[in-house]
């Protein structure tokens, strides 16, 4: 999705009309199957990412297919009564009434495929093609050297062809061959968690405009709206528990999901008392914020769409905040702007000067997000009373402090 969206963005940039754009796509050139059955692979697209998709023409194609907006997000702790509700405020940067949009990955991919077809005169796509070897240029050579082998990157493809380019952008996933052959370092770590995904049916039809997320000690469980009667499940848990969940009979799996959302874990009396006092203090200090009003509960799950249950171990970023693809779309918007400015100034697109500007800008956005996701994961992965008390008081305080809460919402909607 990220590579295709970048190709569209660059292809539409007038300042890059003098440059050739090539997209190497390993998948064959065929439409995504969008049937009446909803895919169990979905993404939470933020208003910021929607703005990018609108700018490259892909959003219109998505609207012709299907998507589901949600207006609020309710988050709560399994080990206490602490909870918080996020919804766009009057100062929302995007003027959106929606927190986000749940879109099936095949729908987004098909929208981008259609848009690339419309940009065929600007973007050449080689389908069914993979990179075999990448050779980087000798940066000590004169850029005006006529021998492109010295000053341009060389891409040897598996079909025997060779392509030369001043700028190679690697958007080929966590096991990126481009990154490996360019000897780029990356920092990664494992959480020893696996995601279980499924498409769930509700017992009754509702507006279904709320995304639900509950923090369990084994990992977060979330319901993301698909239709008035369907939601997508993303349940992060231990690998052993994930295997058990997908092997259950449907009725037992439904019970497990409902129990995970509705049942409370064993509570520590001191934590419960401290939580109640915290809510009382918050309501006294900020009586207009409705802090402490009871949590709503998600609709009761009644069934599972056939063949929708699966183990999803493909996450690059922990899914608890649903920000993986949005960070990628943020990369696209930033790189497009940086390259456009460089082209307008007549600079070499392959030089480090403006690419370092891109790196700095994205680190300022991505590093805080990843740090926050990692901290939340670690903080909520225990039922020890001391961390439970700390996170409960922190969540209540955040809910009461509107300026901080609004900053979190703005950051999450980018």
From TrEMBL:
**Where is the protein found, in the record's own terms?**
Mitochondrion inner membrane
Q: What is its EC number?
A: 1.14.15.45, 1.14.15.46
Domain annotation FAD-binding: ranges: 144-262, 312-366
Keyword annotations of the record:
FAD, Flavoprotein, Membrane, Mitochondrion, Mitochondrion inner membrane, Monooxygenase, Oxidoreductase, Transit peptide, Ubiquinone, Ubiquinone biosynthesis
Molecular function via GO: 2-methoxy-6-polyprenolphenol 4-hydroxylase activity; 4-hydroxy-3-all-trans-polyprenylbenzoate oxygenase activity; FAD binding; oxidoreductase activity, acting on paired donors, with incorporation or reduction of molecular oxygen, reduced flavin or flavoprotein as one donor, and incorporation of one atom of oxygen
Gene3D superfamilies in the record, alphabetically?
FAD/NAD(P)-binding domain (3.50.50.60)
Principal location = mitochondrion
> Cofactor(s) for this protein?
FAD
Hey, which pathway is this one from? Cofactor biosynthesis; ubiquinone biosynthesis
| Source taxon at top rank | Eukaryota
Q: Which reaction is the catalytic activity of this chain?
A: a 4-hydroxy-3-(all-trans-polyprenyl)benzoate + 2 reduced [2Fe-2S]-[ferredoxin] + O2 + 2 H(+) = a 3,4-dihydroxy-5-(all-trans-polyprenyl)benzoate + 2 oxidized [2Fe-2S]-[ferredoxin] + H2O; a 2-methoxy-6-(all-trans-polyprenyl)phenol + 2 reduced [2Fe-2S]-[ferredoxin] + O2 + 2 H(+) = a 2-methoxy-6-(all-trans-polyprenyl)benzene-1,4-diol + 2 oxidized [2Fe-2S]-[ferredoxin] + H2O
Instruction: Keyword check for Secreted, yes or no.
Output: no
**GO CC, alphabetical:** extrinsic component of mitochondrial inner membrane
The answer to whether keyword Mitochondrion applies is: yes
The entry sums up its family as follows: Belongs to the UbiH/COQ6 family.
PANTHER family the record matches: UBIQUINONE BIOSYNTHESIS MONOOXYGENASE COQ6, MITOCHONDRIAL
Report the function annotation for this chain: FAD-dependent monooxygenase required for two non-consecutive steps during ubiquinone biosynthesis. Required for the C5-ring hydroxylation during ubiquinone biosynthesis by catalyzing the hydroxylation of 4-hydroxy-3-(all-trans-polyprenyl)benzoic acid to 3,4-dihydroxy-5-(all-trans-polyprenyl)benzoic acid. Also acts downstream of coq4, for the C1-hydroxylation during ubiquinone biosynthesis by catalyzing the hydroxylation of 2-methoxy-6-(all-trans-polyprenyl)phenol to 2-methoxy-6-(all-trans-polyprenyl)benzene-1,4-diol.
NCBIfam families noted in UniProt: Ubi-OHases
HAMAP family the record matches: COQ6_monooxygenase
State what protein this is by name.
Ubiquinone biosynthesis monooxygenase COQ6, mitochondrial
- What is the species listed in this Swiss-Prot or TrEMBL entry? Stylophora pistillata
Q: Tell me the organism's taxonomic lineage.
A: Eukaryota, Metazoa, Cnidaria, Anthozoa, Hexacorallia
């Amino acid at each position: 999705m990220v590579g295709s969206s970048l190709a569209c963005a660059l292809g539409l940039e007038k300042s890059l009309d003098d440059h050739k754009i090539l997209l190497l796509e390993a998948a064959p050139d065929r439409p995504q199957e969008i049937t009446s059955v909803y895919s169990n692979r979905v993404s939470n697209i933020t208003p910021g990412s929607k703005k990018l998709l609108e700018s490259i023409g892909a959003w219109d194609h998505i609207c012709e297919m299907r998507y589901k907006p949600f207006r609020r997000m309710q988050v709560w702790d399994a080990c206490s009564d602490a909870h918080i509700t996020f919804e766009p405020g009057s100062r929302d940067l995007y003027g959106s009434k929606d927190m986000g949009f749940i879109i099936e990955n095949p729908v987004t991919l098909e929208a981008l495929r259609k848009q690339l077809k419309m940009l065929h005169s600007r973007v050449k796509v080689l389908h069914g093609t993979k990179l075999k070897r990448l050779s980087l240029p000798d940066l000590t050579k004169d850029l005006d050297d006529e021998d492109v082998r010295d000053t341009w990157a060389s891409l040897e493809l598996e079909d025997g062809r060779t392509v030369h380019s001043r700028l190679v952008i690697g958007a080929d996933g966590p096991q990126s061959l481009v990154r490996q052959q360019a000897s780029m370092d990356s920092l990664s770590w494992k959480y020893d968690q696996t995601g279980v995904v499924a498409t769930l049916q509700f017992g009754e039809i509702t507006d279904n405009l709320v995304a639900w997320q509950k923090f369990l000690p084994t990992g977060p469980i979330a319901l993301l709206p698909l239709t008035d009667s369907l939601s997508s499940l993303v349940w992060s848990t231990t690998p052993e528990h994930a295997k058990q969940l997908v092997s259950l009979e449907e009725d037992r799996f439904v019970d497990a999901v409902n129990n995970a959302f509705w049942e409370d874990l064993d509570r520590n009396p001191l934590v419960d008392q401290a939580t109640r006092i915290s809510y009382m203090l918050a309501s006294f200090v900020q009586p207009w914020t409705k802090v402490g009003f009871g949590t709503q509960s998600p609709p009761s799950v009644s069934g599972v769409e056939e063949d929708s249950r699966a183990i999803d171990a493909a996450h690059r970023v922990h899914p608890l905040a649903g920000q993986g693809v949005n960070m990628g779309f943020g990369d696209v918007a930033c790189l497009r702007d940086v390259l456009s400015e460089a082209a307008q100034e007549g600079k070499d697109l392959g030089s480090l000067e403006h690419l370092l500007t891109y790196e700095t800008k994205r680190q300022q956005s991505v590093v805080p997000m990843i740090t926050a996701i990692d901290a939340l994961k670690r903080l909520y992965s225990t039922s020890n009373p001391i961390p439970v008390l700390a996170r409960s008081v922190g969540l209540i305080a955040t809910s009461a402090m509107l300026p901080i809460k609004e900053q979190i919402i703005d950051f999450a909607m980018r």
